[in-house]
Amino acid sequence: MNPESKINIDKLVFRIAGSFILVSLLLAYFFSPYWLWFTAFVGANMLQSSFTGFCLMATILKKLGIKPGMAYK
Q: If pLDDT is split at 50, 70 and 90, which confidence band does 71 have?
């Protein structure tokens, strides 16, 4: 297995954020457009993380013992 393909915080943050966005879009389509607020919340957190370097999900994953990547150390 390629060492770069192993799971790390960076990959998990992107996977979780992408999953949240897709699930909230499905919920908005099938149930209520108010779910789009959750989509906006995830997007806003991704944007602020790009400026501040702080990501709550990365902090949680680090405390769970997931190996850091290049972005969140």
A: confident
